[in-house]
Amino acid sequence: RKEVEQDPGPFNVPEGATVAFNCTYSNSASQSFFWYRQDCRKEPKLLMSVYSSGNEDGRFTAQLNRASQYISLLIRDSKLSDSATYLCVVNSGGYQKVTFGIGTKLQVIP
Amino acid sequence: NAGVTQTPKFQVLKTGQSMTLQCAQDMNHEYMSWYRQDPGMGLRLIHYSVGAGITDQGEVPNGYNVSRSTTEDFPLRLLSAAPSQTSVYFCASSYGSNQPQHFGDGTRLSIL
To answer: Which pLDDT tens digit goes with each residue over A73-86?
Structure first.
């Protein structure tokens, strides 16, 4: 099993839709979790950290499920500008144990 | 704020040539790293540094060298370029090992 797994998509959703992505991880000792956004041919940019209690930032909600070992990202009221690849990042302790998922591609359609 | 600055943005090399990718950050971050990103694969760690004078290998270090003489700069050297090193290279920095990383805008490198 890969350390971090994401469905590469693409997820094609209409404007205004709600879409959710999951990211599973294999190391139960993983300590910190992040979602990044990467636009085509650009650098990854931090979207949000994922906390044990869950956290929300506007239309974006991130959750952590330690029992089932996955994190999720929910996007409400999708905008055309949300079209991008969303990378999950899992840190199992130290820089050398940071693992990036391959990313989930989202395309929001007018 | 400049953040993390990488140069050059694009480079084409011939097999066997050497070159240095530059990375500088102005956020006084102790931790810096180099990743490569290839299609269908997540970012893979090449080398990283936890402070000036301290570097260590990541997942794919072969063919690359690094040094960290100052907090701000973390150059990546390709010793003898090979076609397998064709990739997009990202430099990143963070306050600590468990903190989110800030990325430069990347170097697109092609080895012919």
So the answer is: 999 999 999 999 99
Q: CB of A74 within 8 A of CB of A61?
A: yes
Residues A96-107 have a mean pLDDT of 93
Average per-residue pLDDT in chain B?
A: 95
pLDDT > 70: what percent of chain B? 99
Residues of B in contact with A91 (CB under 8 A): 97-98
Angstrom CA distances, A23 to A58, A60, B80, stand at 21, 15, 37
Contacts of B97 in chain A (CB under 8 A): 91, 93-95
pLDDT at residue number A94: 78
B45–A96 C-beta distance less than 8 A: yes
DSSP strand E in chain A: where? Answer: 4-6, 11-14, 19-25, 32-38, 44-50, 55-57, 60-65, 70-75, 84-91, 98-100, 104-109
Tokens 């600055």 belong to B5
